[in-house]
Write a structure and sequence with these properties.
- The longest helix is centred in the first third of the chain and has 39 residues, at about 10-45.
- This protein has one domain (about 10-180).
- About 65% of the residues lie in helices and about 0% in strands.
- Mean pLDDT is about 90; it is low at about 195-200.
- It is mainly alpha-helical and about 200 residues long.
Length: about 200
């Protein structure tokens, strides 16, 4: 299949690569933050002055770590794969199954994006002038009125990781599919040589 060095497929891979590099930085920051939170928690408990909100902050930090890491692993093709069936198939059949699996990941990402749009309902809350209480009273969607238990942060702010993950997952899945279709050569990712756990799913 002919490869266009400057077409839309090339731009999608460029964008995916830029997001991947950003995800690496975010992961590093989140892991550093998590370690610091745990250390402070241990010290504060040992001294008899525990900081009550650290547990909740650590939980949300792990949640963001998992979603950002899952997106990054998708682009690096380090996601889980079961190759029991495809190991017995010929090259053409295995490639077809691989393309179907990649397409399924892309559909899943787009589906999550659609569900996040319905759930967050940005147009709906905009109609009420971003008045969270008025919006909740009329829509019974209390996302924008809820706060976390100890941090007392807006719940919606922390849960923005879901649409972010949906968007980056979709982008990385599309980039992988472009490479698998032969529209663009497979790219290396300097600084992210984590091994290769890829198997045809």
């Amino acid at each position: 299949m002919k490869q266009n060095p400057s077409g839309p497929a090339h731009l999608i891979l460029d964008l995916s690569g830029a997001v991947l590099r950003l995800e690496r930085i975010v992961l590093t920051c989140l892991m550093t933050l998590l370690v610091l939170l745990i250390l402070v928690n241990v010290v504060s408990r040992y001294t008899g002055r525990p900081i009550y909100w650290i547990d909740e902050a650590s939980v949300y930090c792990v949640v963001w770590l998992c979603f950002v890491g899952a997106s990054l692993m998708t682009r690096l093709r380090l996601d889980f794969a079961v190759s029991l069936l495809t190991d017995k198939l010929g090259p053409k059949s295995a490639r077809l199954v691989k393309l179907l699996a990649g397409s399924a990941v892309l559909v899943f990402g787009f589906s999550m994006l659609a569900m996040c749009w319905i759930w967050l309902d940005p147009i709906g809350i905009a109609r009420y002038g971003f008045d969270a209480k008025e919006y909740a009273a009329n829509s019974f969607n209390f996302l924008y009125t809820e706060k976390t238990q100890t941090l007392e942060w807006p719940t919606w702010l922390l849960q923005t990781i879901l649409p972010i993950f949906s968007a980056t997952l979709s982008l990385h899945a599309l980039a992988n599919l472009i490479e698998d279709l032969g529209l663009q050569p497979r790219r290396a990712h300097p600084g992210l040589e984590l091994g290769n756990a890829e198997a045809v799913t």
